[in-house]
Amino acid sequence: MNAPLVKLRGKARFAMYMLGGCILLVLVSAASIAFGAADMSMSTAWAAIVHFDPAVTEHNIIRTFRVPRTAADIMVGCSLAICGAIMQGTTRNSLADSGLMGISSGATFSIALCMAFLPDRTYVTTMIFACLGAAVATGITYFVASLGKRGMTPQRLVLAGISISMLFGAFSQYISIRYRLGQALAFWTAGATAGAKWEELALVAPVFLFGVLVALALSPSVTVMSLGEDVASGLGLKTRVVQGFSTIVVLLLTGISVIVVGPVGFIGLITPHIARSLVGVDYRYIIPASGVFGALLTVSADLVGRLINKPFETPLGVVLAVIGVPYFLYLVRKQRREFE
């Protein structure tokens, strides 16, 4: 089979899965808007969006709570999935994820500090602190992983990330107990988009769009990086530049995700593997596919959390953990020889 035909089939397969993913995302988003503690018909949900009547209670519920919540799910799922794809490609580590690498925990610790010491903080201040915390955690993780004669390996990076994640998690708990943050921090760290507001989403949306666009622009370079740093350098790629921009994207997208929903995990771990199995190993396809399927996974998990124990809600982080932990154990078992 000649190369042009293989390339054409790859593009066709990518287009097919992207179209299917987008259709499913629209359908699940519609269900997310219509169903919840108070179920409404699809026609009511549609009318609330296109023919809003402030006198109708159902319309106010949909426009004020459910639509921004669904938008937050899409934004967070897309962001974390793209982060996972970039990290897995640039580090050649199939277990890379912003949660496992300690990045989310660093952002969480920074927000806990904001809650304790900056009670009158603005949303922009919180966003800046979250990104700075993510950056500090990332730097510590890479530094710890690079110690020793063997230097940094994918396995050492994962182990260092898990250790740093536990460390910052303990710091956050200490801040919570010491300054009596209690239920506010506990509910937020469980992961939930119930409190998403249009004003807050409008502030993080430009950062989200910037991160996604840069990630798409980096996707050809990430494909080359996935062959190995030595090979990428031999092909003329400026690996340090690519790693630098990739790190910035991951920090920004992880930071805004932690602000919006809390430190949910496993989206960035699971979704790139699903995308890779569907569209192949080219990150020009994996990154956008991860964004769509990450959004689909998050909206679906949030919807399940609302429906399985009505009228009470199961936090998004709990639902994703139930899905993600078995998958993580499967990946570790699959790669057990690399850890020996």
TrEMBL record:
Keyword list, A-Z: Membrane, Transmembrane, Transmembrane helix
Chain segments annotated as transmembrane: 71-87, 99-118, 124-145, 157-175, 205-228, 248-271, 283-308, 314-332
Any Pfam family: FecCD
Full protein name: Iron ABC transporter permease
Lineage: Bacteria, Bacillati, Bacillota, Bacilli, Bacillales
